[in-house]
Amino acid sequence: MPDHTRGAVAAALATLALCVGNAGAQTVSLSGSLGSKALLMIDGKPRSIAVGSTVDGVRLVSVSGSEAIVEVKGQRITLALGAAQVNAGGQPSPGSGSQIVLSADINGHFFTAGTINGRAVRFVVDTGATSITIGQVEADRLGIDYRSGRRTYTNTANGVVPAYGVSLGVVQVGDVQVYNVDAIVLPAAISHVLLGNSFLTRFQMRRDNDRLTLERRF
């Protein structure tokens, strides 16, 4: 084979490998919706997609006010509004990621789905909370043995209240896992789990307008 042909083949193979690698790292999240269109963030770039259309390999199957269903390489993925980016290429090991990207809702709050010890929860980012904060009813649902935890007190909008200090085995948002995270369980009912600084300080935080990026510290 002539040298120039070998060079062309090598270049083509390198390009193909790059494309395959990029496809494997593709991420997607839902930033908003308007009628039958969804505003998706695909690999960090905003894309407006109508139901049934495909952009950058992502097909929009359906969209509602708070979630969208997309299809990537035959795999259907449900995206919650404002939740962390989902890796839509390949199947990475659970917890293998190092970055969380969130989008603010219309009120400027950052909500995201996640898990505590493998059980699904809904988080809201709260930089004013010292620790992850969980209401007692939610802690019971999650099976957290907080009554055996450390008795303490914490400041709330209603003043100082008794609470339990516990350690959560694993907290996951997107494909990022954090182990042994301090938390507080309050006797009050809380609509969401507060994602406080016991989790957030494990990351470098950067906000760009309505986008919050958490980069894992190592």
From TrEMBL:
<protein>
    <submittedName>
        <fullName>TIGR02281 family clan AA aspartic protease</fullName>
        <ecNumber>3.4.23.-</ecNumber>
    </submittedName>
</protein>
<dbReference type="InterPro" id="IPR011969">
    <property type="entry name" value="Clan_AA_Asp_peptidase_C"/>
</dbReference>
<dbReference type="InterPro" id="IPR001969">
    <property type="entry name" value="Aspartic_peptidase_AS"/>
</dbReference>
<dbReference type="InterPro" id="IPR021109">
    <property type="entry name" value="Peptidase_aspartic_dom_sf"/>
</dbReference>
<keyword id="KW-0645">Protease</keyword>
<keyword id="KW-0732">Signal</keyword>
<dbReference type="InterPro" id="IPR034122">
    <property type="entry name" value="Retropepsin-like_bacterial"/>
</dbReference>
<dbReference type="Pfam" id="PF13975">
    <property type="entry name" value="gag-asp_proteas"/>
</dbReference>
<keyword id="KW-0378">Hydrolase</keyword>
<dbReference type="GO" id="GO:0004190">
    <property type="term" value="F:aspartic-type endopeptidase activity"/>
</dbReference>
<dbReference type="GO" id="GO:0006508">
    <property type="term" value="P:proteolysis"/>
</dbReference>
<feature type="signal peptide">
    <location>
        <begin position="1"/>
        <end position="25"/>
    </location>
</feature>
